[in-house]
Amino acid sequence: MKLETKKIVVMGLGYIGLPTASLLATKGHQVLGVDVNSQAVATISKGEIHIIEPGLDILVKSAVLSGNLRASLTPEEAEVFIIAVPTPFKDDHVPDISYVEAATRAIAPLLVAGNLIILESTSPVGTTERIRSILAEERPELFNGKGPKQAASIYIAHCPERVLPGQILNELITNDRIIGGVDQPSRERTAEFYRSFVNGKVLVTDARTAEMAKLTENSFRDVNIAFANELSLICDHLSINVWDLIELANRHPRVNILQPGPGVGGHCIAVDPWFVVASAPNESRLIRTAREVNDAKPHWVLDKVKAKSGRFKAPVIGCLGLAFKANIDDLRESPAMEITRDLIKAGVGRVMACEPNVHGSFEEFPLYELGEVVQEADILLLLVDHEEFQGVDRELLKEKVVIDTKGAWR
Q: Which residue numbers are catalytic?
């Protein structure tokens, strides 16, 4: 199904908003991307990108040169508004939906009857209803009747993003999408919109179920990673190679244990389970425990490094990888970043960090080339299994203390 060309505003030009805006622009829609980051807006306006994602540079350049994609600090009137802003949590793991609320209030004065408002940000249960409440307060003339189920002349829905960094442009089109409308007309209108550019199935439900579905997907992953990480602690205690153990256990036809690592990062898996815990603290005991296991893993790695550093008077510690997963530049909630920062603060030795996917804009601490780190380090700490690290000559590792948190050099 192909819809007529629409004017679309995308609020937030990060890892989801910018690819979405660019994709829709190349489909012929007139798209305005909005962000509070003036540098990001200026960069995109030149047809360039401020984040790294395979193929995104070409897509953005094409979309901008076509005239279908513009970037701005402020929204304009449109037919479709997509909210793709951050949804972090506060220090006490309470969800912070202030960015969603701010984006909603920013578009409220621009709305007219027939507009479609879609929340793509992964959000705690009830956030889409919160958007509806804000709009009902700001623009009561767009709503008929009274109460939470009042009819409206605008359409409001949640369609959570469910893409993998490094595969975003492909998965935006091929993945199934879940549509959760605040009412039946909103579900139908939103499903019609996504079917115009998504090849995967478009699955329709209510807003709360759609919100919980995304949180469930990431909590499932987190719980299973926690099992693997806990196994790594047990195996270390019992002098067993965890990588060999998992490989053998996975030979069972109904066992598929994931791989352990230095923790869990990224905006989704490291954050979303806490949204579930905050919504139902007494009922989410397993999900909470899994989060605590994964959050504790970086501290365990740090203790291992400190214990090994006692062999040297002034050790050089090479930290390989800062991103939250392999072959990307995304540092959000990265356990590798946490470990590297803590090592620098602890003053255990001289820390040399290498992250081949980050270029130019990183200023928190010096970055070094891989060869230089491998040559100078007394302790090599492999935190991310980037492809560049896989090919390190094993002969160079023989005189080093190696702490491989990913099993890439076993």
A: 214, 268
